[in-house]
Structures are given as C-alpha cells and as structure tokens.
User: What shape does this take?
Amino acid sequence: YPPRPTAADASEIDRGASLFSEYCAACHGVGAVGGGVTPDLRFSSAAVREHFVEIVLAGQLVEQGMPAFAGELAPRDLSAIALYLAERAWAAVPQRLRPDAAVRGEN
Assistant: This one.
C-alpha cells in the first residue's frame, strides 16, 4: 500500500483529484477506478510508485501506450496526483482489512 495520506494533505489531494480528472481519468477511470484495459492506479506496485515521475513525465512506458506528460505536468503535480491515488487506495479497502488494522487491534 502507498503511505496513508493525512488530514494535512487534504488540499493537495483535492488538487490531485482535479489533475487526475483532467489528465488521467479518460484512460484510468473516473475516481481512479481502473477501466479494465489500463491499470487501476489505486493498487499500483511499489515499483510503479517509485518510478511514477519517469513513467508519467519521461514516458518510460510509452511503448505500452502510456503517453508522456512532460511539459504538461510538473513533479509537484505528480505528488498531488500520487496523494490522490493513495487516498483512493486506502478508501477502497475495508477498514478491517487495511495493513495497519492489526496494529490498531481490528483483526
């Protein structure tokens, strides 16, 4: 799972949601719910999260159909989108199944 966003991230999550809607939703689904052909970004692997900038800005996966957004999005924009995706990932998992549930005594 991605790091869990905090309440302090709320404005950046909102900005990320707006950016996602404008640049990503057509392929990756409204609300970041994958559409079948393209990945559901809420559940990206740690490797994808680690290389998010290279994938989105530099076109690391252009041969697989992922366009590059260099010149359209800045690294700060990707940070906001990543926070939005993290928020959507955590929202999709029932509380009792979340990785930190055992720590909170919910298992």
Remarks:
- The helical segments are 10-23, 25-28, 46-50, 52-56, 75-92, 101-104.
- Residues 102-107 have pLDDT under 50 and may be disordered.
